[in-house]
């Protein structure tokens, strides 16, 4: 797999029926290793190991309903009160992040109302903070570290 622009972490692989899987510490199971999953697992470990978000506040690959359509977000981090702090959209490292990617996460955020958004293909990362009152967002250099309230 492609080397990504994330810190290294200790991953676990297993191979069954000629398919390689990687262990997901959030879902607590092996997931078939595809390029997007490689990016997602690096991002999850970055959020846990570098940004200090507790595993208990992280959710991965859950379904949501947007205008009657079933969609799946990649990563969500909750605040301790259950509101959503951050939505992460992961793309494969061979996908260029463009306006369509930002439109996708913006649609998700209409339903989830997160304070921060992150879009990554593992090589390039983009972060922004939402200003829901002014209906705009501001790009950031990074997302904040976890702080216990």
TrEMBL record:
Q: Which residues form the Type I restriction enzyme R protein N-terminal domain?
A: 35-144
Q: What is this protein called?
A: Type I restriction enzyme HsdR N-terminal domain-containing protein
Protein's organism = Winogradskyella poriferorum
Q: What is the lineage of its organism?
A: Bacteria, Pseudomonadati, Bacteroidota, Flavobacteriia, Flavobacteriales
């Amino acid at each position: 797999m492609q080397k990504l622009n994330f810190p290294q972490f200790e991953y676990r692989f297993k191979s069954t029926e000629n398919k390689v899987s990687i262990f997901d510490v959030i879902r607590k199971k092996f997931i078939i290793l595809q390029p997007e999953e490689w990016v997602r697992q690096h991002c999850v470990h970055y959020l846990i190991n570098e940004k200090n978000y507790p595993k208990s506040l992280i959710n991965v690959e859950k379904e949501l309903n947007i205008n009657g359509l079933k969609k799946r977000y990649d990563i969500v981090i909750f605040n301790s009160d259950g509101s959503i702090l951050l939505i992460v959209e992961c793309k494969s490292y061979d996908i260029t992040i463009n306006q369509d990617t930002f439109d996708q996460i913006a649609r998700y955020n209409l339903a989830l109302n997160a304070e921060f958004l992150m879009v990554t293909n593992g090589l390039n990362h983009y972060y922004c903070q939402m200003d829901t009152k002014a209906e705009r967002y501001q790009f950031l250099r990074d997302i904040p570290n976890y702080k216990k309230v």
